[in-house]
Design brief:
Blueprint (H helix, E strand, L loop, with lengths): L4 H6 L30 E2 L6 E5 L4 E5 L10 H8 L3 E5 L16 H11 L5 E6 L1 H12 L4 E7 L15 H12 L3 H9 L5 H4 L2 H13 L29 E6 L4 H13 L4 E5 L6 H4 L1 H18 L1
Parallel strand pairs: 3-4, 3-5, 5-6, 6-7, 7-8
Antiparallel strand pairs: 1-2, 2-4
Helix pairs in contact: 3-4, 5-6, 6-8
Length: 304
């Protein structure tokens, strides 16, 4: 997701939020993630789990940290009626394996596109997913048609104040490490990032289930992640593709700082603010989110 103080800098692999395929019965620590309604295929080079549906202009949905590709349940099928839609689990999340050797999220996405024989794509990312989309657009500009950044993270951007202090973040990590998974996840869901979404009982159940199933991501080794160099914060002016930024007016201050920096630095970027939404803007307000994003994506397809 985004950088949250020095604790989150150490946990740079962390990021953000998913969907509706919830199994019956009580939440279980380490419960298997239910099968996707699509393909749930695994890549050969790096076994990242992904789904593909639809035909037409490629659109890649990149989830936020602490969750997985199911955060796009409200968009995946709907968008597939108009586009070729790919959603995948970033390394260390969902059904994708935890990193055991140095890797790059940007190169993982490149390899996935190569395997699917997709030359250029429109990237839609939330939080961590937005950070990956930004980094990819900088590293591989010829492979990006457009980017949609929802409550985005920006690599290398520091904030004057943190949305979750280091002590609280370490309490979450330590609780999960010590087997008190439910306590750690509940503390996480009570933070400013998740609190607006958790006010909706139906959405709260989805987020709690997926967060529990993805609790292992909090213990991933962040040292193995190879960041973009120089970081995106110093290179935002290199982004020249059409860019749409979507943010909830209840999102945390650091996200609004990220959006401000992007609007100042990315030529011709457009911004949509969704009233009443917090960080999980696509899940909290799916109709409003899609009303902003689908016309933007359709414009890119028409301009091809």
């Amino acid at each position: 997701m985004t950088t949250i103080g020095s604790a989150m800098a150490l946990l740079a692999a962390l990021a953000w939020p998913p969907g509706s395929f919830l199994p019956d019965g009580p939440i279980q620590t380490g419960a298997p993630i239910p099968a996707s309604p699509a393909t749930d295929r695994m890549r050969v080079r790096v076994p990242l789990a992904y789904d593909v549906a639809g035909k037409g202009e490629p659109v890649v949905l990149i989830h936020g940290g602490q969750l997985d590709r199911r955060m796009w349940d409200d968009q995946f099928t709907r968008y597939a009626s108009r586009f070729q839609v790919v959603r995948y689990d970033v390394r260390g999340y969902g059904k994708s394996p935890a990193p055991l050797e140095p890797y790059s999220d940007v190169d993982d996405l490149r390899d996935l596109l190569d395997d699917l024989k997709i030359e250029t794509a429109n990237l839609v990312g939330l939080s961590l997913g937005g950070r990956i989309a930004i980094d990819f657009a900088i590293q591989y500009p010829k492979r990006v048609r457009s980017i949609v950044l929802a409550g985005p993270g920006v690599s290398g951007l520091r904030h004057e104040s943190d949305d979750v202090d280091d002590a609280a973040m370490w309490e979450i990590i330590q609780a999960i490490r010590d087997g008190e998974v439910e306590r750690g996840i509940e503390a996480w869901l009570a933070t400013g990032y998740m609190k607006p979404a958790m006010e909706n009982p139906a959405l709260a159940a989805r987020l709690r289930q997926i967060s529990m199933e993805d609790a292992h991501c909090w213990l991933a080794n962040p040292i193995l992640a190879r960041p973009l160099k120089p970081r995106a914060n110093e290179r935002l002016g290199e982004i020249h593709c059409p860019t749409l930024i979507v943010v909830g007016d209840r999102d945390v201050p650091s996200i609004h700082e990220n959006v401000k920096r992007l609007m100042e630095s990315v030529a011709n970027a457009k911004k949509v603010v969704i009233a009443g939404a917090g960080h999980m803007v696509n899940m909290e307000k799916p109709a409003e989110f899609d009303a902003a994003v689908l016309p933007f994506l359709e414009a890119q397809a028409s301009a091809k």
